[in-house]
Design brief:
Elements lengths: L3 H7 L9 H21 L13 H11 L4 E5 L5 H4 L2 H9 L3 E5 L7 H26 L6 H17 L3 H7 L3 H25 L3
Antiparallel strand pairs: 1-2
Helix pairs in contact: 2-6, 2-9, 6-7, 7-9
Protein backbone atom coordinates (compact mmCIF):
# COMPACT_ATOMS: atom_id res chain seq x y z
CA UNK A 1 0.00 0.00 0.00
CA UNK A 2 1.38 3.41 -1.00
CA UNK A 3 1.76 5.77 1.94
CA UNK A 4 1.00 9.48 1.74
CA UNK A 5 4.69 10.26 2.41
CA UNK A 6 5.77 8.04 -0.50
CA UNK A 7 3.24 9.78 -2.73
CA UNK A 8 4.66 13.23 -1.80
CA UNK A 9 8.20 12.04 -2.44
CA UNK A 10 7.17 10.94 -5.92
CA UNK A 11 5.78 14.39 -6.77
CA UNK A 12 7.95 16.80 -8.75
CA UNK A 13 9.64 19.50 -6.66
CA UNK A 14 7.97 22.88 -6.38
CA UNK A 15 10.09 25.38 -8.31
CA UNK A 16 11.11 28.79 -7.05
CA UNK A 17 9.26 30.41 -9.96
CA UNK A 18 5.99 29.05 -8.56
CA UNK A 19 6.87 30.29 -5.06
CA UNK A 20 7.60 33.93 -5.88
CA UNK A 21 4.37 35.14 -4.21
CA UNK A 22 5.03 33.59 -0.78
CA UNK A 23 8.70 34.62 -0.97
CA UNK A 24 7.79 38.28 -1.42
CA UNK A 25 4.72 38.21 0.85
CA UNK A 26 6.65 36.61 3.73
CA UNK A 27 9.50 39.12 3.39
CA UNK A 28 7.03 42.03 3.47
CA UNK A 29 5.21 40.63 6.52
CA UNK A 30 8.48 40.12 8.42
CA UNK A 31 9.67 43.60 7.42
CA UNK A 32 6.45 45.16 8.78
CA UNK A 33 6.53 43.04 11.97
CA UNK A 34 10.16 43.96 12.65
CA UNK A 35 9.34 47.65 12.16
CA UNK A 36 6.54 47.36 14.73
CA UNK A 37 8.82 45.49 17.17
CA UNK A 38 11.63 48.06 16.92
CA UNK A 39 9.79 51.34 16.33
CA UNK A 40 6.38 51.04 18.00
CA UNK A 41 6.56 48.51 20.83
CA UNK A 42 8.87 49.07 23.84
CA UNK A 43 10.21 45.50 23.54
CA UNK A 44 13.74 46.52 22.40
CA UNK A 45 13.95 49.87 24.17
CA UNK A 46 16.36 48.55 26.82
CA UNK A 47 18.75 46.77 24.41
CA UNK A 48 21.36 49.55 24.71
CA UNK A 49 22.47 51.76 27.58
CA UNK A 50 24.50 54.93 27.71
CA UNK A 51 27.99 54.86 29.20
CA UNK A 52 28.74 56.85 32.36
CA UNK A 53 30.36 60.22 31.58
CA UNK A 54 29.49 59.90 27.90
CA UNK A 55 31.12 63.22 26.96
CA UNK A 56 34.51 62.10 28.33
CA UNK A 57 34.23 58.78 26.47
CA UNK A 58 33.25 60.60 23.26
CA UNK A 59 36.17 62.99 23.64
CA UNK A 60 38.62 60.11 24.17
CA UNK A 61 37.30 58.27 21.11
CA UNK A 62 37.40 61.45 18.99
CA UNK A 63 41.01 61.96 20.07
CA UNK A 64 41.94 58.34 19.22
CA UNK A 65 39.99 58.71 15.92
CA UNK A 66 39.45 54.99 15.20
CA UNK A 67 38.34 54.19 11.66
CA UNK A 68 34.94 52.54 11.28
CA UNK A 69 35.32 48.91 12.30
CA UNK A 70 35.24 46.48 15.19
CA UNK A 71 37.65 46.81 18.13
CA UNK A 72 38.61 44.92 21.28
CA UNK A 73 39.82 46.65 24.46
CA UNK A 74 42.37 45.62 25.65
CA UNK A 75 43.75 44.36 22.35
CA UNK A 76 46.30 41.62 21.81
CA UNK A 77 47.42 40.24 18.48
CA UNK A 78 47.64 36.53 19.30
CA UNK A 79 46.90 33.90 21.94
CA UNK A 80 50.51 33.89 23.20
CA UNK A 81 50.25 37.59 24.04
CA UNK A 82 46.90 36.91 25.75
CA UNK A 83 48.76 35.03 28.52
CA UNK A 84 51.40 37.72 29.07
CA UNK A 85 51.50 39.37 32.53
CA UNK A 86 50.77 42.78 30.99
CA UNK A 87 47.65 41.56 29.16
CA UNK A 88 46.42 39.67 32.24
CA UNK A 89 46.85 42.88 34.28
CA UNK A 90 44.90 44.91 31.70
CA UNK A 91 42.09 42.33 31.67
CA UNK A 92 41.88 42.38 35.47
CA UNK A 93 41.95 46.20 35.65
CA UNK A 94 39.29 46.61 32.95
CA UNK A 95 37.43 47.88 31.20
CA UNK A 96 37.06 44.93 28.85
CA UNK A 97 35.03 45.99 25.83
CA UNK A 98 34.14 45.18 22.28
CA UNK A 99 33.44 48.30 20.33
CA UNK A 100 31.86 48.87 16.93
CA UNK A 101 32.67 52.25 15.40
CA UNK A 102 30.50 53.57 12.60
CA UNK A 103 31.27 56.45 10.26
CA UNK A 104 30.29 59.85 11.72
CA UNK A 105 26.94 61.30 10.70
CA UNK A 106 23.32 60.25 10.76
CA UNK A 107 22.51 56.57 10.36
CA UNK A 108 21.26 56.01 6.82
CA UNK A 109 17.93 54.38 7.69
CA UNK A 110 17.00 53.95 4.03
CA UNK A 111 20.11 51.88 3.37
CA UNK A 112 19.73 49.86 6.59
CA UNK A 113 16.05 49.13 5.93
CA UNK A 114 16.83 48.21 2.32
CA UNK A 115 19.51 45.75 3.44
CA UNK A 116 17.14 44.28 6.04
CA UNK A 117 14.45 43.75 3.39
CA UNK A 118 16.97 42.02 1.10
CA UNK A 119 17.91 39.78 4.06
CA UNK A 120 14.21 38.97 4.64
CA UNK A 121 13.92 38.07 0.95
CA UNK A 122 16.98 35.83 1.24
CA UNK A 123 15.49 33.95 4.22
CA UNK A 124 12.22 33.50 2.31
CA UNK A 125 14.14 32.41 -0.79
CA UNK A 126 16.10 29.70 1.03
CA UNK A 127 12.99 28.61 2.92
CA UNK A 128 11.23 28.23 -0.44
CA UNK A 129 14.18 26.47 -2.04
CA UNK A 130 14.55 23.82 0.66
CA UNK A 131 10.84 23.26 1.23
CA UNK A 132 10.19 23.10 -2.52
CA UNK A 133 12.71 20.25 -2.76
CA UNK A 134 11.22 18.37 0.20
CA UNK A 135 7.49 18.86 -0.27
CA UNK A 136 5.47 18.65 -3.46
CA UNK A 137 2.45 20.63 -4.57
CA UNK A 138 -0.76 20.01 -2.69
CA UNK A 139 0.97 19.09 0.56
CA UNK A 140 -1.00 19.73 3.75
CA UNK A 141 -0.58 23.04 5.56
CA UNK A 142 1.11 21.57 8.69
CA UNK A 143 3.87 19.93 6.60
CA UNK A 144 4.64 23.17 4.79
CA UNK A 145 4.42 25.19 8.01
CA UNK A 146 6.87 22.89 9.82
CA UNK A 147 9.48 22.82 7.04
CA UNK A 148 9.38 26.53 6.21
CA UNK A 149 9.20 27.52 9.88
CA UNK A 150 12.31 25.50 10.73
CA UNK A 151 14.40 27.00 7.93
CA UNK A 152 13.17 30.53 8.60
CA UNK A 153 13.81 30.22 12.35
CA UNK A 154 17.39 29.11 11.72
CA UNK A 155 17.83 32.05 9.34
CA UNK A 156 16.40 34.70 11.64
CA UNK A 157 17.55 33.41 15.04
CA UNK A 158 20.02 30.57 14.55
CA UNK A 159 23.24 32.50 15.05
CA UNK A 160 22.17 35.12 17.58
CA UNK A 161 23.36 33.18 20.63
CA UNK A 162 26.99 33.25 19.44
CA UNK A 163 27.15 36.99 20.22
CA UNK A 164 26.31 36.30 23.86
CA UNK A 165 28.63 33.30 24.04
CA UNK A 166 31.70 34.92 22.49
CA UNK A 167 31.20 38.69 22.52
CA UNK A 168 29.58 39.23 25.92
CA UNK A 169 26.32 40.56 24.55
CA UNK A 170 23.65 40.48 27.29
CA UNK A 171 21.58 37.29 27.15
CA UNK A 172 18.43 39.35 27.69
CA UNK A 173 19.00 41.06 24.33
CA UNK A 174 19.80 37.77 22.59
CA UNK A 175 16.65 36.13 23.99
CA UNK A 176 14.57 39.03 22.65
CA UNK A 177 16.19 38.58 19.23
CA UNK A 178 15.39 34.85 19.35
CA UNK A 179 11.76 35.68 20.18
CA UNK A 180 11.74 38.09 17.23
CA UNK A 181 13.16 35.32 15.03
CA UNK A 182 10.47 32.91 16.19
CA UNK A 183 7.71 35.40 15.32
CA UNK A 184 9.31 36.07 11.91
CA UNK A 185 9.57 32.32 11.29
CA UNK A 186 5.92 31.78 12.20
CA UNK A 187 4.86 34.60 9.85
CA UNK A 188 6.99 33.13 7.07
CA UNK A 189 5.68 29.61 7.65
CA UNK A 190 2.06 30.78 7.75
CA UNK A 191 2.48 32.73 4.53
CA UNK A 192 3.98 29.77 2.69
CA UNK A 193 1.32 27.43 4.05
CA UNK A 194 -1.38 29.81 2.82
CA UNK A 195 0.11 30.44 -0.65
CA UNK A 196 1.59 26.99 -1.31
CA UNK A 197 0.59 25.62 -4.75
CA UNK A 198 -2.29 23.18 -4.55
Amino acid sequence: MVTLAALWLSLPPVTLMVLWKPIIAAAVLVFVASSVFHMVLPFHKSDFRGVPDEEAVRAALRKANPAPGQYMIPWCGDMKEMRSPEMLRKMEEGPVAMLTVRAPGQVNMGSALGQWFVYCLAISFFSAYLTGRLIGPGAPYPEIFRAVGTVAFLGYAGATASSSIWLGRPWSVTIKDIVDGLVYALLTAGTFGWLWPR
